[in-house]
Amino acid sequence: MSAPLLRALLVLALITPLPALAAKGPAPAAAAPAPRAAGLVIAARTGPEDTTTLSSAFRHARVAKESGHLAEVTVVVYGRAIVVFDPAVTLPDEVRAQLHQAKAAGVRLVACKTALDRFGVPVEAAAQLAEVTDQGMGEIARLVSLGHEVMSY
Description:
The chain is of the alpha/beta class. The protein has one domain (39-152): 3-Layer(aba) Sandwich (Hypothetical Protein Ychn, Chain: A), CATH 3.40.1260. Helix content is 44%, strand content 16%. The chain contains 7 helices and 5 strands. It has helices at 3-15, 19-22, 51-67, 93-104, 113-118, 123-127, 136-145, and strands spanning 39-44, 72-77, 108-112, 131-133, 149-152. Strand 2, helix 4 (93-104) and strand 3 (108-112) form a beta-alpha-beta unit. Helix 3 (51-67) packs parallel to helix 4 (93-104). It is globular, with a radius of gyration of 29 Å.
């Protein structure tokens, strides 16, 4: 390679910015944090055949409420889980204890009237601890439309 050509390439290399250096400038703005959910809906639908999951639904709702990160925490009880409100159904003490602790922590409890009727649970028994709505799924849909996230148990 001739000296003039080598000199020209060297000059060209010195005056041509490298891509990484050319892109250098102010640091990009940090990504905005993801918007927080307005609330959490726990859809409790497992029945007495899985009392651990049923108990966990109420315990997790209480913990979420006590975290202070959510404006509202609601447990919608429907399907086979509705028996949690039936005093005639024998469940481990832990299940109802977690239900009461969630209520005491400020968790909103909602019972599905359709499920109460289907499983023969007296509305009056559920109404002592929960709001009773015609359709549990309708309440879940309403809360989702307001920006709540759903967890299913």
